[in-house]
Amino acid sequence: MKNLYVIVATLLVETALIWGVSILLNWKMVDIIFLGGLALFGLIWFFQLNSNRQSNAENAHLKGWNGQNGGAITPFQFKSSPVIIGLLLFIVVSFCVTAFTYYPYFID
Hints:
The chain is elongated. Helix 1 packs across helix 2, helix 1 packs across helix 3 (82-101) and helix 2 (29-66) runs antiparallel to helix 3. The mean pLDDT is 91. The chain has helices at residues 2-25, 29-66, 82-101, 103-107. The chain starts with a helix and ends with a helix. By secondary structure, it is mostly helical. It has one domain (2-107).
């Protein structure tokens, strides 16, 4: 049940962020909802990637200077969590909303 609350909170926070950006830029929300969702997902992915890179660099630095084993160098693996599931759900829903809104433009 806690995971469901985190997923719903992620959806609400992401919607609020994109809505605030749309107000700030004086654009319609439907124009930026899909790309904004992709951008936020990419941002989270880059944070996870950077965290793994920083950990590997620290472990290599510790081993090189002190000879101590600070941990193994690990390859990057994307970790799933309720926040990531909420972000992916938002991307899917926003793609459907965008496709439905601009469907007449795709046909003509």
